[in-house]
Amino acid sequence: MRTLFATTALAAMALAGAASADTMAKAGTDLNVRSGPGVQHEVVGVIPGGDDVNVKGCIDSANWCEISYKDTTGWAYGDYLAAKVGESFEPIYPNREKLQVSVVEYKAPEVSTGKAVADAGAGAAAGAAAGALVAGPLGAVVGAAVGAGTAQVPAPAPEVKTYIDAHPMDPVILDGEVVVGAGVPENVTLYDIPDQKDYKYVTINGQPVLVGQDRKIVYIYR
Fold it and tell me: Does the entry feature the keyword Signal, yes or no (predicted)?
């Protein structure tokens, strides 16, 4: 009886360990790591497309996963994290039950009352500066969850960034992460760059981006 109990306890511990283990995944494209689960949070790193990443778990009601990549920990958008499902790589978020991905919750850092008030004011100001939510999400990148995503165009001439910095336009916030190849909704205004016919610019989710004639992001200034 004692042996049976010990064996059962060990089996239960093994199952608990398996359920709480990290899930290995790949970044389908160059992917931001943010300090929290949402585009309103600061970008703290970037995972190059095709690199392996540890997924600690995903929020059950939102398409964001807690990850660790080398020395960086944070949150990444689940549509662009892929794991092996059968014989193919599939997006991790819609397949999280099949992959037994842990469910996690986001706990905002604790701050003192005075600091919380100050941060709330700063957050409101930052939100106002960041722009309003525009109807429609960023278009998904076809194939980004199964491959290395869409390659970013070569770095534009420095004069392009100089012009963008000197001519800031109204920024916008869109649902979904800013990645190369994502489509920009028709109701988002794009702005011309002198002597550049191939792309325009706009600031989305806090990052200036260049957008091609097909309204897909071709370059991100990080």
Answer: yes
- Whether residue 181 contacts residue 150, with contact meaning beta carbons closer than 8 Å, is answered with yes
pLDDT classification of 140: cutoffs 50, 70, 90: confident
Domain count, the chain: 1
Print the domain residue range for 47. Answer: 2-91
Task: Give the tokens for residue 67.
Answer: 């990850």
In a domain, 176, yes or no: no
- CA distance linking residue 51 with residue 70, whole number of Å: 10
CATH of the domain at 62: 2.30.30.40
Tokens standing for residue 198: 């191939």
In a domain, 62, yes or no: yes
Residue from 186, 193, 195, 194 nearest 210 by CA: 193
Distance of CA 151 to the CA centre of its chain: 17
pLDDT per position as a tens digit, 13-50: 333 444 457 899 999 999 999 999 999 999 999 999 99
